[in-house]
């Protein structure tokens, strides 16, 4: 492949934001080179490619850098049209998918992170909020799928499936570390079956870090928040410190 | 052509965005005013999840969230494109739209604060506005180049920040000396006929934001 057509992804193994882009690239069948970043000592390249946020993921294509996972996913969908679409064709369906993707990102992810970073009463409050949001999402899915079964496989994962996977793909690790099962099949039957189907997709399975590693990530995030005098870490969007093992072996 | 309705609020920059986009596309629409401080069944029905304006209703289908509405408008009415054709340029546009959305509350914190808090907020706002000016806008007339596009529309709230918020909060957040390019961009934006005719009444907006600021500061004092 000519140098300028090459696709590179600057990422970090524990980042769910990077995971989204990897799933999308693999679904589309786009070969890429993964560049693992040390987020404690960010490379000059990363600072050059993402001067505004200095974060991963960053996609490099044709020598140009694209940042922010959702922006990257839309770029991938528009640039490689021969793979399965990541968004529906119809503008109204696209709007609905974008709405729920934004919901997963802003309303669910933020509140799950709150649960990770809190304890006692504050944590109970945060857990309650997550369940309220999940209720809304369950209702939203009924409307989105309109009574049809949403069939997911390696041929038709879209941005919403990818975003949901990137958050709740680690649900077993979340359960172990936080002691709460978010996607309870009795409370959220649609969400539960959807999550099961998404995480069974071969591409998603192959990209998922091991359970042990995910448990370590969540324990680390929690420890950092509850004992701030501990290891020096940044826990903001897309930044997970790799004081854990840097190997990408799963 | 299916009916287009917009539920909005006259003082909301989020509503403004949708109005500008619809007008730039030459789309006829019916406007319905909704007071966000006294919500009616209308908004609860059409945006049950967030219960906010703006909401676009097209052929009976509701689309909430201004940034999502803008993409919908762009895709449904392709005349007078408001996003670049090139995928990379579109990605850049979406990047800056997202940046503006995420940082808007922080930049506007000067409006909701006073004294030391406001000083801190000023410093943060200056930092972020510099990023937008230097890395987003640069020397261009508009964010995308020569013509108004979705990024410009999405940053329309900067026209509020300048002039109105400054008057109300007694701080100069977007002065011409510190931000010459943003300043020039604001003038360019206000000269676009659709924007010129659609900006809310200045006096009315000053009055409204004065009251909003009083509410914010009262809340802060309650907690002190």
Descriptors for this entry?
heterodimer; A: 250 residues; alpha+beta; four-stranded mixed sheet; B: 224 residues; 11 helices; 8% strand
Cα distance spanning the termini of chain B: 55 Å
Average residue pLDDT of chain B = 94
* Count of helical regions of chain A: 10
Name the overall outline of chain A: globular
Shape of chain B: globular
Strand content of chain B: 5-15%
Radius of gyration of chain A: 18 Å
Q: What about the largest sheet of chain A?
A: 4 strands, mixed
**Biggest β-sheet of chain B, characterized?**
4 strands, mixed
- Give start-end ranges of low-pLDDT stretches of chain B: none
Number of strands of chain A: 4
Largest interface: A-B, 25 and 22 residues
DSSP strand count of chain B? 4
* Radius of gyration of chain B (Å): 18 Å
Q: Report the helical percentage of chain A.
A: 40-55%
Quaternary organisation of the protein chains? heterodimer
Distance from N terminus to C terminus of chain A (CA atoms, Å) equals: 28 Å
**What is the N-to-C succession of helices and strands of chain A?**
EHEHEEHHHHHHHH
Percentage of β-strand residues of chain A: 5-15%
Total DSSP helices of chain B: 11
Note the topology:
The complex is a heterodimer of chains A (250) and B (224).
Chain A: E1 7-11, H1 16-27, E2 33-36, H2 44-49, E3 58-61, E4 64-67, H3 69-79, H4 91-116, H5 120-145, H6 159-168, H7 171-178, H8 189-200, H9 202-207, H10 211-226
Parallel strand pairs in A: 1-2
Antiparallel strand pairs in A: 1-3, 3-4
Helix pairs in contact in A: 1-3, 1-6, 4-5, 4-6, 6-8, 7-10
Chain B: E1 4-8, H1 13-24, E2 30-33, H2 41-46, E3 55-58, E4 61-64, H3 66-76, H4 87-107, H5 109-112, H6 115-137, H7 150-154, H8 157-169, H9 180-191, H10 193-198, H11 202-223
Parallel strand pairs in B: 1-2
Antiparallel strand pairs in B: 1-3, 3-4
